[in-house]
Amino acid sequence: MPPRSPNAVTLRDVSRVFGRSYALHRVSTTLAAGSITALLGNNGAGKSTLLNILATVDAPSDGEVRFGKVAFRDFARRGRARIGWVSHQTLVYDELTGRENLTFFGQLYGIPHIQKLAETWLERVGLSAAADRPVGTYSRGMKQRLTIARALLHDPQLVLLDEPATGLDQAGTALVSNLLGELRKEGRIVVIISHNFSLIETLADNVLILRKGQLRASGPLPPGTSLISHYQAHA
Questions:
Q1: Which residue ranges does the record assign to the ABC transporter domain (predicted)?
Q2: Between the N and C ends of the chain, which has fewer C-beta atoms within 10 Å?
């Protein structure tokens, strides 16, 4: 039986070592339900490594990660269905239509009445008119919209987004912004990596800034401080 959806994810002194180098070094933080956390840092700061650990596709070398009351190893084995992940790869199939992609992934998750739910998500991400076209004919932005629908289709509690606005035009970015606001209201735990500071500044409840694998700043953006100046001071 899968574990219950976590109401928080807690990291205590989490490190990840590759060879003799620390990709993460003693990172501690709590990600609360009903919040959006921005994960920022320069290239090589450890952002993707941390997101991979939260997605349970990589394990920490040291420290503790708990999903609610569930330990990392147990959640990795039984709780992945509670996670929705948008990575650099779209993880959708070019030879299938948009509708077929969502139906396929929904069936993998055992979602009942998936055809109706797929239709709902195609509409939510603005792809109803292209639902029955092969995804190989989609633009990059259209594929990204479908990827977001694929990641949220199964109603995950923990939502991990690595550059979700990639390839999106202004309308697509607004769609992402609206979806993130809805996820927060629904009590999800949302973690986002993005270079779109205007998107982050308007949405993030908390900002984590990594530098060379170490957490240099954690918490809400200080009042009267712009995100760019906060980032430049700590990254």
A1: 9-235
A2: N
